[in-house]
Automatic annotation (TrEMBL):
Residues annotated as domain ABC transmembrane type-1: 94-283
Official protein name in the record: Dipeptide/oligopeptide/nickel ABC transporter permease/ATP-binding protein
Membrane topology according to the record: Multi-pass membrane protein; Peripheral membrane protein
Organism taxonomic ancestry: Bacteria, Bacillati, Actinomycetota, Actinomycetes, Jatrophihabitantales
Cell compartment(s), UniProt: Cell membrane; Membrane
């Protein structure tokens, strides 16, 4: 089987919609190679359809007066041992040769697709087993597999089709696995999972439409290989049997007299080469035109769900602050000692550690921190979206009083699907590019509220109106690419409102938008919150945004919450040196433009190399001996503000930045 093509970039929502896909395939015909391959392909296919209709009689006419003749004006390629015209026989054999090769390719694609997407459907253990079987099968040479299957399925055209189909399946299985795993990581799949869409529907509606194009391209290339393999099996006497004939069979017949009449063997050989090259060339041209590359990547293992049964993280258990515990009945979300662990090269890596917080009904809580501080993973863990091999553990993870660590995934889906919404960073990837917006919104209502298609679409229109999408009746029929970025983000929020959300988690919802649209989206989130008393967990790099929208701010560093402070007091009452540095790094109207803007010197901690003491100590102006030795616990004061610092609230020297930066520069210049 030919080398497989995988997309250089994952199919983006910018390009894979059906109409433009068609356009891209046609655009390939505008290149010289693509056009030649296209013409050849049409020619071969027409020949396969028409040749038996027009020339079967000439091909089968026995003429014992002219047996085994060479080329002549009457018989361009000569005759066989019954005097039948070989030229017409080669033409007529096109249908069987091409038809059987295409059938074998179809079997390879279907079986490969089933094997490749099985890990998405059958759960972790069975999925691993399927993947292992595919890996072993891929390691076998294709021809060996084909011969093996040919013996199993028996001699003849059916056996040969099955043999070549099954021999090609592992390659397509691997390709499907790679593509499906890439799609499964996309935001719109996460959104569908939050909406409670079951695995089969997820596969049929969201994954398959997005992996179809590369599969078809590879199948086209694969058809060339299948043609060659089929000719090989027929040549060996394992494929098509007399009186039927394909090119392989004609090649075998012609080979016995090759020294006397070489054309008898050459003609079917040329036909095999030309047709094989045609499929290959066309597939390669399309692949090049639509941006597929020739190497197959490592197969990401994908399995469902997180495993909550493992023991909790061995990091300090801070617990929910007293005032949050007391108000637990009013808490929409209660998280206690949450950790997320991944396997690493040198042992488990824990990018989220001992995170505890609660969000009350109608409250807006911001989560800030530098890149890699664990903000998104915390949100994904809450939404039960961490995939294996990631592992979530917590002493408590409750949403609307329901323990998300107990009970079935189905029950969680139902609860999260109706009462929880997640808005992702990139509105480009939040929707399935191959489905109309209205259908994607309606899916939630049909899944959880038992609405009919019509009712669900009517609700989608209503929800789009609620998020101020103009001409909502028309917009529901459009594809995501027909929406602007801001409108797509609003539609995503509208999707969250299809149920009756008590909590919206918005992970950097405005980062990918321009400033004006940012403001509109933030205002929309605020108005929804105010109108329906919906709680909001807003994750952002942007301290200014969080300060503007939220009641309370959780500051994360190295996978932990290091401070929990009212948003209004962020500038005045923050006590952790990291929070103060984050606030100082936000320029305001009074900033002195003659001085460099404040930055936080040094680099964030690599989760794989957590220090023993306070992880911020190497960058901290207040760090002392104890900070290097002991990691401070997150401690609440009487007012409920929490901070994890041995020197919380101590004054920071004016010149700390200059000193720290000088230390950094000198450090960077020193040989290691
Ligand atoms: N699947 C994963 N496997 C291993 N490590 C991961 C995985 N996902 C995230 N991490 C690591 O966990 C850490 C926290 O990631 P996370 O995405 O939560 O950070 P973040 O604060 O949201 O950053 P950003 O603002 O850039 O999104 C990072 O160091 C990241 O490399």
């Amino acid at each position: 089987m030919a080398e497989m093509m995988t997309p250089t970039a994952q199919p983006s929502s910018a390009d894979p919609r059906p109409r433009r896909r068609r356009g891209r395939w046609l655009a390939v015909l505008h290149t010289p190679v693509g056009a030649s391959a296209g013409v050849l392909l049409v020619g071969v296919l027409l020949l396969a359809i028409l040749a038996p209709l027009f020339w079967t009689h000439q091909a089968n006419a026995v003429d014992t007066n002219h047996v085994l003749e060479g080329t002549s004006s009457a018989h361009w390629v000569g005759t066989d041992n019954l005097g039948r015209d070989l030229f017409f026989r080669v033409l007529v054999a096109t249908r069987l040769s091409i038809g059987l090769a295409l059938l074998a390719t179809a079997i390879a694609v279907v079986v490969g697709l089933i094997l490749g997407t099985a890990p998405l459907l059958v759960g972790r253990r069975a999925g691993r087993l399927v993947t292992a079987v595919v890996n072993i099968a891929v390691a076998f040479p294709g021809l060996l597999l084909a011969l093996f299957f040919a013996v199993i399925f028996g001699i003849g055209r059916t056996g040969a089709v099955l043999a070549i189909g099954f021999a090609g399946a592992p390659t397509f299985a691997r390709l499907s696995q790679t593509l499906a795993a890439g799609i499964a990581e996309r935001d719109f799949v996460a959104a569908a999972r939050i909406a409670g869409v079951n695995r089969v529907r997820l596969l049929l509606r969201h994954v398959l439409p997005n992996i179809g194009e590369p599969l078809v391209v590879n199948a086209t290339i694969g058809a060339g290989g299948a043609l060659l393999s089929f000719a090989g099996l027929s040549f060996l006497g394992l494929g098509v049997q007399a009186p039927s004939y394909d090119w392989g069979r004609l090649l075998q017949d012609g080979l016995s007299g090759i020294y006397l009449h070489p054309a008898a063997a050459l003609a079917p050989g040329v036909a095999i080469v030309v047709a094989g090259l045609t499929f290959n060339l066309f597939g390669e041209s399309v692949a090049k035109g639509i941006g597929l590359t020739g190497t197959i990547g490592r197969i990401p293992l994908l399995s469902a769900g997180t495993d909550a049964e493992q023991p909790a993280a061995a990091t300090p258990d801070e617990g929910i602050p007293a005032q949050d515990r007391e108000e637990a009945p009013n808490a929409v979300l209660a998280v206690e000692n949450l950790s997320v662990t991944f396997p690493g090269a040198d042992g488990p890596v824990r990018p989220v550690r001992a995170v505890s917080f609660a969000v009350r009904r109608g409250e807006a809580v911001g989560v800030v921190g530098e890149s890699g501080s664990g903000k998104s993973l915390t949100a994904l863990a809450v939404a039960r979206l961490i995939e294996e091999p990631g592992h979530v553990a917590a002493d408590r993870l409750e949403f609307l009083g329901t323990d998300l660590l107990a009970g079935t995934a189905r029950a969680h889906r139902q609860l999260l699907g109706t009462s929880f919404a997640m808005v992702f960073q990139d509105p480009m990837t939040s929707f399935n590019p191959t489905r109309r917006i209205g259908h994607q919104l309606a899916e939630v209502a049909r899944q959880h509220q038992g609405m009919t298609r019509q009712q669900a679409l009517a609700r989608a229109v209503d929800r789009l109106r609620a998020v101020r999408v103009p001409a909502a009746e028309r917009r529901v029929r459009q594809y995501p690419h027909e929406f602007s970025g801001g409108m797509r983000q609003r539609a995503m929020i509208g999707m969250g409102l299809m149920g009756d959300p008590a909590l919206i988690i918005a992970d950097e919802p405005t980062t990918a938008l321009d400033v004006t649209v940012q403001r509109q989206v933030l205002e929309l989130l605020q108005s929804i919150r105010a109108a329906d008393n919906v709680a909001l967990l807003l994750i952002s790099h942007d301290v200014a945004v969080v300060r503007q929208v939220c009641d309370r701010v959780l500051v994360m560093y190295a996978g932990r919450i290091v401070e929990d402070v009212p948003a209004a007091e962020l500038s005045t009452a923050a006590r952790h040196p990291y929070t103060r540095a984050l606030v100082a790094a936000v320029p305001d109207m009074h900033v002195d433009l003659n001085r460099p803007l404040p930055v936080i010197p040094g680099r964030p901690v690599d989760p794989a190399h957590q220090p023993v003491g306070c992880p911020y100590a190497p960058r901290c102006p207040l760090a002392g001996e104890r900070c290097i030795r002991e990691d401070p616990a997150l401690v609440a004061d009487e007012a409920g503000r929490r901070v994890a610092c041995w020197h919380a609230g101590e004054p920071i020297p004016d010149d700390w930045q200059e000193k720290a930066m000088a230390r950094d520069i000198i450090g960077a210049g020193e040989p290691s």
